[in-house]
Amino acid sequence: MYFFEPAFRIPLTLLLLVLIVPVTRGYQLADGTPPAPDPPVKYIFYWGGIQADLTAENNFESTHQLTPAQFRQMLHHQPFLWTGNAMAPKVSFRLEGQPVTATRGTDDYLTQIGPLDEKFGQAAAAGKALHLSGLQLEGQTTGRITFLLIASEEDAVSAGGSTPARGSRRKASRNATYSYAGSTNTQLVKKVIWGREDIYDNANRDYFSATEFWQTVRQLPYIEWQPYTESGPVKAGVQFQDVGQTTLSLTARVEPDLYRGMTDNLQHYRHLVKPGAIISLTLHTVEQHDNLYVKTMTIVPDNDPRLALRRDRDTHTLWVRWGSWEESVPNLYLLELKDDTGTSIPVDPPLDLRRFLSNNEAPGMLATRPEFRIDGYPVPDMTFQLHTPYRTVTVTPDQPMPAALPDSVDLEATEQLMFRIDSLQAPGYHLPLLSLSMGFITVSDPLRVRNQLPSLLAAPGSVRIKLRAPVQIGKTISVEFELPERAKAALSIFDQDGWNHHTLDTDFPSGKNQAVLTPKVALQPGTYFLFLNTIFGVARQEFLVN
Asked: Alpha helices, DSSP H only, in 191-287?
C-alpha cells in the first residue's frame, strides 16, 4: 500500500493553531484601504407633530420646542418608533417617570390618553420642560427626549410681542375662541338632522350639556340631498377644542358599522367633554371634500342658564369699521347671566379680531375713530381703551382719537407697530371681552399659507396653478404641476392625522414642473394629501397608498 507524502511537513502544533484561531475580519481591500464601517443606526420617534431623529452621534437624545397646545395635541396621538427597517410593534417609555406603552393594532395607548392629559396636558404652560426617558430602542439602548414648552404666537401678540409670520399685506381677522352657528350647504343638501332635532333644536343653540352631546353624537346623521344632486359617500367628523385650545379630530364614514366604531372610540376622550369644551360636528363628501354641515356645541353644566338661549330669538350682530378694516360679528347675545349662586357667567366668548396692514396705512387708520353698529343701528356712545406702544388711553364718546404716533417715529424704518382697542362699553348692552388688534408691519414678499394640514385644508385654491394626481413609483412619489411664473413653492405630503411625511420647499421655474418626493419613511397603506403651497394659492390632491 502506498501513501501520498507531501513535499513539506506541517508541525502538528502549528496545524492545531490554524484550525482553532478564528478568522479575523479586519483585512484590507485589494487596494490597501480598510473596509467602510457599518452605517450608523438611526431611530425616528414620532408623536403627534414631533419627529425626533435618534442616533449614536446625538447619544440618542433630542430636544424640541412646542407650545402647550401643541404638547396637548401630541398627547392625543399614538406614538410610533421607526427602527431603521420598520415600525416597532411596541413603543415604551416614561414621561416624567410615568410609564407609557403603545402597541400597534391595539387600544392600549388610547386608554392612557385621559390620565396623561389630566396629569401633564392640563398643567402644560410656557416655560416648563418635560422629559421623556427610557425610550426602548434595542437591547440596552434607550432614548431620551426633552420637550421645552414655549409661548404661542397668539400669546406673544397679546402680550405686545412680535407678530406672527411677517410679509402678508392683509391677514384675515382672527377669531380663535368664537363658536359659530351650525350651517348647512343648501346647494347640495336640503336637510341635515344629527341627533333629536325635534327635542334639542340644535340649529338654534350654542350651549349644550355633556349629556346632550352624547345623545346627539350617538345618532347616525340623516342627510336629505337636493333633487338635482347626486348623492355620494359622506364622512362625519367630531372635532374637539377644549378650554386649553387642544384640537382633536375623529372621522368616519356615515355607515352604521363605521360610524359606531367612531363613537366607540370617542369613549377614550370622555375627559375632553366637560364644561368649557367646544366641539364641532362636521359632514363632508368623501370624494370632493365638499363641506355639507357644521355644528358647534359649547359644553356647559346641566343647570346652566345658557341652555335656554336661542340664536333666532336672543342674538345680535356687531359691526365694526376702523379705517379700511370692516368686520361683522353675528350671533352675539350681548347680555350677562348669573348662576344659582349669583355669580356672573360669560355668555359671549372672548373675541380677538386681528388684521395686519403695511406701515404706510398706519397714520390714516389711527386718526380715524372706529365706527360701531349693533343690528344696523349706530352706537355713537361707545367707550373703549386704546393701547399703543407708547401709552394707554381711555377714549370716551365725546373724544376724538388721540395722537397715537409720536412725530419722532420713522414708519419706513419701523419693522412693526401693534395697536389694540378693548374694554368696550355701550349703554344697554353687555359686550364680550372683545379686542381689535391692528398690526402695522414692513411689507416684504407675501408669504404662503402656513404649511400645516388644518391651514392647507382651509386655504383658498387658485386657477393660476395646477397640480396633477401624483404617481407612486416604488417608494417615491412623482408629481407634475404648473406655475404662472417663477416662484417659491412647497410640495408636501400629509396623512389624515396631520403628520407631514415629506416637504420639498424651493424655487421653481414658470410653466410645467416635475418633482420626485421621497418620504423618509415608507408610506403605510391609507389615504394621504399632496399639497402645492404657493403665493398664488394652494392646490391639493388626495391619493391612496395600498
From this structure: 197-200, 210-217, 256-266
DSSP 160-178: T---SSS--SSPPPP-TTP
Please, what is the average pLDDT of the chain? 82
Q: Which residue has the higher pLDDT, 158 or 74?
A: 74
Question: Is the separation of the CB atoms in 129 and 65 below 8 Å?
Answer: no
Task: Look at residue 152 and tell me whether its pLDDT is greater than 50.
Answer: yes
Give Cα 431 to chain centroid, integer Å. Answer: 30
Question: What is the residue type of 376?
Answer: G
Q: What share of the chain has pLDDT > 90, as a percent?
A: 39
CB 419 within 8 A of CB 388: yes
Using DSSP's 3-state secondary structure scheme, residue 262 falls into helix
Is the four-CA dihedral 373, 379, 384, 389 of positive or negative sign?
Answer: positive
Bridge partners of 354, per DSSP, are: 437
* Residue 426 Cα to chain centre, angstroms: 36
DSSP H or E stretch at residue 156: helix 153-158
User: Are the C-beta atoms of 409 and 390 separated by less than 8 Å?
Assistant: no
314-333 CB burial, b ≥16 within 10 A, e <16? bbbebbbebbebebebebbb
Q: Give the confidence band of 257 by pLDDT, cuts at 50, 70, 90.
A: very high
Alpha helices in 347-412 (DSSP H): 362-366
Tell me, what DSSP letter sits at residue 276? Answer: T
Which grid coordinates belong to 308? 335656554
**Is residue 287 classed exposed, middle or buried when 0-12, 13-18 and 19+ CB atoms within 10 A define those classes?**
exposed
- What is the C-alpha to C-alpha distance for residues 490 and 517, in angstroms, rounded to an integer? 11
- Which residues are CB-neighbours of 277 under 8 A, at least 6 positions away? 240, 241, 242, 243, 298, 299
Query: Would you state the cell numbers that stand for residue 385, as one nine-digit string?
Result: 381703551
What is the structure's pLDDT at 273?
92
Amino acid, res. 203: A
Residue 265 burial by Cβ neighbours in a 10 Å radius (0-12, 13-18, 19+): middle
**3-state secondary structure at position 468:** coil
Q: For the purposes of burial, counting CB atoms within 10 Å of the CB of 376, is it exposed (0-12), middle (13-18) or buried (19 or more)? A: exposed
Mean pLDDT of 289-300: 90
pLDDT at position 26 over 50: no
Cα–Cα distance list, 456 to 177, 185, 449, 530 (Å):
20, 21, 7, 10
Asked if 305 and 207 count as a contact pair (C-beta separation under 8 A), the reply is no
